[in-house]
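Each letter names a residue; structure tokens follow underneath. Both lines appear below:
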Amino acid sequence: MTSFARLARNLVAGLALLAALPALAQGDDDLLPVTEAFHLTSDASQPGMVKLHWRIAPDYYLYRGRIKIKAAEPTAVTLGEATLPDGLKKHDEYLGDVEIYHGDVEASVPYTLTDAATKTLALDVQYQGCHEVEPKICYPPNTEHLKLTIGGASTIPAAAAPAANGAALLGAPSAAPGGEAQALPADQAFRFEALVKDHGSLLLRWTMPKDYYLYRDKTQITVASPAGVTAGEPDWPSGTAHHDEHFGDTIVYFDQVELPVPLNGASGATAVAIDVAYQGCLENGICYPVMTRHVKVDLGAGTASVGAPSEEQPAAAAADVAPTPPPPGLSPGGDAPIGFIAAIGLALLGGLVLNLMPCVLPVLSLKAITVLESGESPGAARRHALWYTAGVLAAFAILGLVIVGIRAAGHGIQWGAQFQQPLAIGLLVYVMLAVGLSMSGVFEIGGSLGNVGSGLAARSGPSGDFFTGVLAVVVASPCTAPFMGSAIAFAFAAPLGVAFLIFLALGLGLALPFLLIGFIPAIARLLPRPGRWMETLKQLLAFPMYLTAVWLLWVLTKQRGADATALVLAGGVLLAMALWWYGRSRGARLSWVFTSVLMVGAAAALWAVHGLPAQGSALRVAADGSVPYSPEKLAELRGAGTPVLVDMTADWCITCKANEKAVLDTDAFKALLTRTGTVYMKGDWTDVNATIAAFLEQYHSVGVPLYVVYPKGGGDGRKLSTVLTYDSVEKALEAAAHP
């Protein structure tokens, strides 16, 4: 047995052994959506500092090292290093030594604005956590997109629990173990009044119950109106010295404190409006976030009206009114999370079904030729199958490592995203054209070019078999076959080693038909015997390659317009001329020079595509009568109680186009929308689109297609299967219209 055959046998045996391992997760309807398991609130009331607070549900924990905070607009703001409390140290089976949080935890993030007049702050906050009791699962990294009003009221609950590490939030000591202290609502804990001392000054008063105290240094007073009036230096009375774990030595006030505040320039004013921000704590208990009161004072009558924090709370941005995503790792029907054994099984099935997808069939024609050519030699058939499998597994391993690695670094990437890059599309056009020309007999690869470029796929030796496997994976990546989505979603959430095995299982499924032909003589004997007719078949099968190139050019036209298509076509002509000349001249020295010049011209044409502007996707989507997707429009429709079907698609997505042909573009579907009153909303992910990528992240989708139905009158969205039938869509929309 060859060393390669032994390697393949050991790989299959290893995957079989893994099937005996306990599942990492089991289905359970009681699992919370990620945004409920780790409820995130924020406080941007203090300029220069943002506080983020997670309230973690019981039996869940959050990884300290998986919290990543980035500015959504890096040119507008510079973020400092986030301050997080120490977590509980734990040894994770997959991640090694980590720190985790239970209960509540808060992060403080300093920031500096590029433009001091900026009123809003946009943050992308990514975090990851797990359910620590049965069913034990870890959620994929979740990213929330926050748009905060600087100086606005806090959304952090007024009575947040102590931090998970035992240190009090925002610098207060924790409640003693077993303590019975119960925090009061903020308005009761710090009763605030604003009085007129005289025409030129105010008297601010805070009254606190026993054991509550107010920070002196955390109090800020500013005059909002009228213009020209400013607050002078407050006349603080003597307070109590206090050593704070986070703030150091400071002064606090218990019971009651009265603070005279002079008003500069108020001699002609009849009324003033001031903003008062302050912060305090319960001794041996919790600390409250910064509280803000908007005070309007009639200087003549001596009366004041104080706005509660709820009155100052800004409305949530439309982009933040996001649907609650389902738990990760859903089964194809979207019913329950899957475990490791199920993920491996679904990956094998998904890879097997990929063989039937139209994006893979052209490449399989190459393998059909090589298998038929080896019809008289079982040993040759086995070698073809093993080298092809090696190419498939290598390509899936590299693709999986790249995708999972990029996501682990905190960047969003989904399955098939490489087809959003015009350079990748153009290069694949060249590859398909070159392979087709080789099969048509225009040129043959000689020994000196035996390891270069796309022509490898046309060779009959190990390198040709290996590269055919690689090419099969490349063209299969825009396809999402049944069973694949859940397996890849599980891989995105799993540790690197587990994700690697899932991607290998996908590859094994894709290569399985040819492995069976190569190693089971009874199946191989069913193939026709080789003969002269095979040369005709080889030339005939070149035409699917040309058709694939045409499809790729159509995708490129959607992305970059007709100019891009013309450039790639011109480059394709230069490439064809170079290959024709090389095949005709048989490697003569002068032919190398001419061929190289033509190749450089083809590469230059491809590179020119990179500088072309993207086409407007929203206009393309709206042309079919659907509503272009936007978070604001979705929030508006949901607020009006309208059922909505969101369809995230792309021109390069073969599964998307199949669903449109079978269901979404039919008259029956349009009648169904009218009957149920459902709005059909469509997002085009053909080109890079951060808004759509964020929606995919929210629903833990590995790519497109993604279909989500929102019921009438509000409620959580429900994901549909990636492969649609009219009956399944009708059932979902009827249920959404009559919840």
About this structure: The chain has a mean pLDDT of 74. The two ends are 62 Å apart (CA to CA). The first helix runs from residue 3 to 18.
